[in-house]
Design goal:
- The chain contains eleven helices and twelve strands.
- The protein is of the alpha/beta class.
- It has a domain of about 210 residues: NAD(P)-binding Rossmann-like Domain (Rossmann fold), CATH 3.40.50.720.
- The chain has a seven-stranded parallel sheet, sandwiched between helices. Strands 7-9-11 form a three-stranded mixed sheet.
- The longest helix has 20 residues.
- The two termini are about 25 Å apart.
Length: about 350
């Protein structure tokens, strides 16, 4: 059966108002799909402003809330997830990420949806060789001790449960996005916060680590490619460029004209800061730490990835990290996230590849 997306196809998107979810929604609208956005009750919908989409509210942790949602739908993209470093209720991560994913995949499958694209995360993969310069692939299994925090742990379990449903016949394809950057990062996400902190002069230095930077719109295009060309039960990393933290800051300096952070800290520095912040602010003052331990652990981990499978099997392409970071920075500035005195210092220098994607 063909999974080609046609104009008018009814497509349900969970988490559609989020950073990656709204990019997927925009990509589907551009293809002429009839998009049904499934939104958490009370969630901000600003990322959907101006889009011709149908909006529904549902609590995915409750199966009865999904009754009728998938009737007549041909496809489903499941991007809804709970993310955070300091939860007041850790059990909510399990409820949303694990049980919610099971509910969505089961209900969509039972309703006859032809294909479900489940958004996992590269955080479920092993990082055994990245410190030695070898990026991880979809075949690198995780070390459980490296699954820091509620988000990683529950996404790992959720991926297992989704794959179990796929083994029982659910028409699931998995996409594992890397670090997204670009416009519409309202929250902002942890990756966007790096850009925002740089713009506001709040990054005094860096540690020797590396990450994979991708434009959020390229990740959205990868989701659509996974829908149309992916194989059932198969995982696809969608990414961009592997760069060091030093290179990321230099790119931001190049595109904004602001000075780059030059001071290099030992890799143990963010871990020490994370433990101290967790103890003083978290345990004693009972408030969210300024340096969450989970974020500190991630910041000191080399997270590079090889997305050859998606490029070979799906035809996935991506643009430069410079473009992703430039468009992220521009969006934050244009939407009032940056201090006036820092805005006055900007000297924009757009990268050349504003349209071309790398195959």
């Amino acid at each position: 059966m063909s999974s080609d997306l046609h104009p008018g196809d009814r497509v349900v998107v969970t988490g559609a108002a989020g950073f990656i979810g709204s990019a997927v929604t925009r990509a589907l609208v551009a293809r002429g799909a009839h998009v049904v956005t499934l939104l958490e009750p009370g969630a901000s919908r600003s990322n959907l402003d101006g889009l011709d989409v149908e909006q529904l509210e549902a609590d995915i942790t409750k199966p009865q809330s999904l009754t009728g949602v998938f009737d007549g739908a041909r496809f489903c993209f499941h991007l809804a997830a709970k993310f955070g470093f300091w939860p007041t209720d850790p059990s909510s991560f399990y409820a949303v990420n694990v049980q919610g994913s099971r509910n969505v995949v089961r209900e969509a499958t039972n309703a006859g949806v032809e294909r479900i694209v489940y958004t996992s995360t590269v955080a479920t993969l092993g990082l055994w060789r990245t410190k030695a310069g070898t990026p991880s692939t979809e075949d690198d299994f995780a070390d459980l001790s490296h699954l820091y925090g509620n988000y990683k742990q529950t996404k790992y379990v959720a991926e297992h449960e989704v794959l179990r449903l796929a083994a029982q016949g659910a028409p699931v394809v998995l996409v594992l996005p890397t670090m997204p950057h670009g416009p519409y990062d309202h929250r902002p996400t942890p990756s966007g916060k790096v850009v925002l902190d740089y713009l506001n002069g709040a990054i005094p230095g860096y540690v020797d680590t590396a990450m994979n930077v991708a434009h959020v719109d390229d990740l959205a295009a990868g989701h659509v490619l996974a829908l149309e060309k992916g194989r059932q039960g198969r995982s696809y990393i969608c990414g961009g460029e592997n760069i060091t933290m030093s290179q990321l800051l230099d790119i931001l300096s190049d595109v904004t004209g602001l000075a780059s952070a030059q001071r290099k800290f030992p890799s143990v520095f963010p871990i020490i800061a994370g433990y101290a912040s967790q103890f003083l602010e978290g345990s004693i003052l009972h408030r969210e730490p300024r340096v969450p331990l989970e974020a500190a652990q991630m910041a000191s981990t080399t997270m590079t990835f090889d997305d050859t499978r998606a490029r070979t099997e799906l035809g996935y392409q991506s643009r430069s990290a410079a473009l992703a970071l430039y468009e992220s920075a521009r969006w934050f500035v244009e939407h009032g996230y940056v201090k006036t005195e820092r805005v006055n210092q900007l000297a924009w220098n757009p990268p050349a590849d504003q349209t071309a994607r790398r195959s």
